[in-house]
Design a protein that fits this description.
Shape: globular
Strand content: 15-25%
Helix content: 40-55%
Order of helices and strands: HHHHEEEEEH
Structural class: alpha+beta
Radius of gyration: 21 Å
Distance between the termini: 66 Å
């Protein structure tokens, strides 16, 4: 009797684990060529996860998911929350939430996100990337450089990547063509928002923020 109970309990645990993995996989498809990278240390002390080829595959797979999330013909504006959840660091997601909270508190005064860091614009067509290069800083930090193609425009992009929770995630987006550092601008926006709102109220004027 005890053996049958143990077998049943084990089956329940396996079923729950399977459901949890299925839910996670439904967020955004990674693509067939770049599963999450497991961190392993070689004999010389370097991490297998820091292999530039693996990171290159990871970035290609991420932007394949971006292209799928932003189809060429779609009447509904995609939400980038799923992309953030799947491919961005905890710090990045926290900053985005803080900025959105500030915008909600100051409804009617304009918001921060008047363009989309995933596609470097407001509108989109076929999303592709080219000339991808990876610069590995250490086992947990790397930069990716590529050209983003969207509606005939070509934007030079830099991603700051962090190895977190067993996979490479995006910690910052930098539009090198238009000199926009998204993380830096979010921090600046959060720091100055309160003070500038007080000045706006006192002067009954409009404050223009130096943000994308």
């Amino acid at each position: 009797m005890d053996m049958r109970k143990n077998i049943l309990f084990g089956c329940i645990l396996l079923a729950l684990a399977s459901c949890g993995n299925k839910d996670k996989g439904n967020i955004i498809p990674l693509g067939n060529d770049a599963p999450p990278v497991e961190e392993a240390v070689t004999n010389n002390g370097t991490s297998d996860s820091a292999d530039p080829e693996l990171i290159t595959d990871r970035v290609n797979a991420i932007y394949a998911a971006v292209a799928e999330a932003y189809p060429e013909i779609n009447d509904i504006t995609p939400s980038n929350d799923q992309l953030d959840d799947a491919y961005c660091t905890g710090e990045w997601k926290t900053l985005v939430q803080m900025v959105n909270s500030k915008d909600a508190e100051n409804m009617g005064r304009g918001g921060f996100f008047d363009s989309d860091y995933w596609i470097m614009g407001q509108d989109w067509g076929k999303i592709t990337i080219s000339n991808l290069k990876v610069d590995v800083k250490d086992n947990t930090h790397a930069n990716a450089f590529f050209t983003l193609h969207n509606l005939g425009s070509q934007t030079k992009v830099q991603l700051e990547l962090v190895f977190e929770h067993g996979e490479w995630l995006i910690g910052n987006f930098i539009d090198e063509t238009h000199k926009v550092d998204w993380k830096k601008n979010m921090l600046k926006y959060l720091e100055k928002k309160g003070k500038e709102l007080q000045e706006e109220s006192a002067n009954d004027g409009i404050i223009e923020y130096d943000v994308p």
